[in-house]
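Reading is simple: each integer encodes one residue's backbone shape. The lines below illustrate:
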Amino acid sequence: MTKGACYNSFMYSVYILECADKSLYVGCTNNLERRLLQHNNSKYGAHYTKIRRPVLLKYSEKFTNLKEAREREAEIKGWRREKKLALIEPSYLLKRPSKISFKEVGVAGPM
């Protein structure tokens, strides 16, 4: 890095948690490890996950830009459960009859 250069070392994560009641929670953070601990252990976890502990990290994506991370979070939050499960585990589409395509979820299909 050169003197005076602006440098942003943040990485933002969009993540999906599975709660104890098997519901899914989608969030965004700049520190995934800390946020997962908060969801499971502290008063700073989201209210939704506080009453559904423990939670497990099932999926995450990394972004260098907060705007893109928030847009992706909003996109995934708008999906039905079935589509979120297909993103977490692409083979989900092979196990269950579905109207969702691999392309729609953004993963490679079976080889």
Remarks:
- Residues 80-111 form one domain.
- Strands lie at 12-18, 24-29, 56-63.
